[in-house]
């Protein structure tokens, strides 16, 4: 349908390059979106960091879970500022967060919504790449798609392993600090658990565990992106004739 002129070849390369770029971005965004909206993350945080949490904030498990639900709702609703209404030692607080924390959560929400948009844009491009490719090149596109997916998976796998190993090797503190310095243009993220309930509720260990969960999920998914094209290629590639079979075939052609 389309001739392979120079412009078409450049377009193919650019489209494939964008595909390779968008795969890791899509997997990162989707997994971040999944983890921050998973109720299990907040129950896990309390169950595993209760001692650290209660050191600064004497909150019951049910109230902590309620606070986590209010944060998830805030990320997904149209409210500009977060107001967390929970009970601490029998006293109901209409909002346990101070002004600094509220502003920081406003910044976090903008970042989270940006991750949402990134997952949607990247997902739309990846789907469009596949649909347009099959529409133009039909079955011939399958081999090209397999190679592109394999390359995307390999790149994502390498990136995921690099971040995961770096985090486990003790570099998480530096990466966590760098993330905040890049993501936020103010210093409202510099909170103190002795006065700020937000960081008291979510010690750094919670973010470390969430990061490992996100990276681990990405590594598994990227490994599948590498393994599936290889497996399909081996399963469906034409059978290679043995030397004896080739000799027999050549002899039959001569007769």
Written description of the protein model:
By secondary structure, the chain is mainly alpha-helical. The chain has one domain (6-254). The protein has helices spanning 6-36, 39-56, 61-76, 99-137, 140-183, 197-201, 204-236, 243-254; strands at 86-88, 91-93. Strands 1-2 form a two-stranded antiparallel sheet. Strand 1 (86-88) and strand 2 form a beta hairpin. The longest helix is centred in the middle third of the chain and has 44 residues, at 140-183. It starts with 5 loop residues before the first helix and ends with a helix. 21% of the residues are buried. The model has no long low-confidence stretch (mean pLDDT 89).
Write the layout of secondary structure elements.
Elements: H1 6-36, H2 39-56, H3 61-76, E1 86-88, E2 91-93, H4 99-137, H5 140-183, H6 197-201, H7 204-236, H8 243-254
Antiparallel strand pairs: 1-2
Name some characteristics of this structure.
255 residues, mainly alpha, two-stranded antiparallel ribbon, 78% helix, elongated
What helical percentage do the residues reach?
over 70%
| Biggest beta sheet summary | 2 strands, antiparallel
The amount of beta strand, in percent, is: under 5%
Secondary-structure element sequence? HHHEEHHHHH
Distance between the termini: 41 Å
The poorly predicted ranges are none
Structural class, judged by helices and strands? mainly alpha
Return the domain count.
1
Principal-axes geometry comes out as elongated
Mean pLDDT: 89
Strand order of the largest sheet: 1-2
Rg from Cα: 25 Å
Task: Give the number of helices.
Answer: 8
Brief summary of the model shown:
The chain is mainly alpha-helical and 255 residues long. It contains eight helices and two strands; from the N terminus they run αααββααααα. It has a two-stranded antiparallel sheet with strand order 1-2.
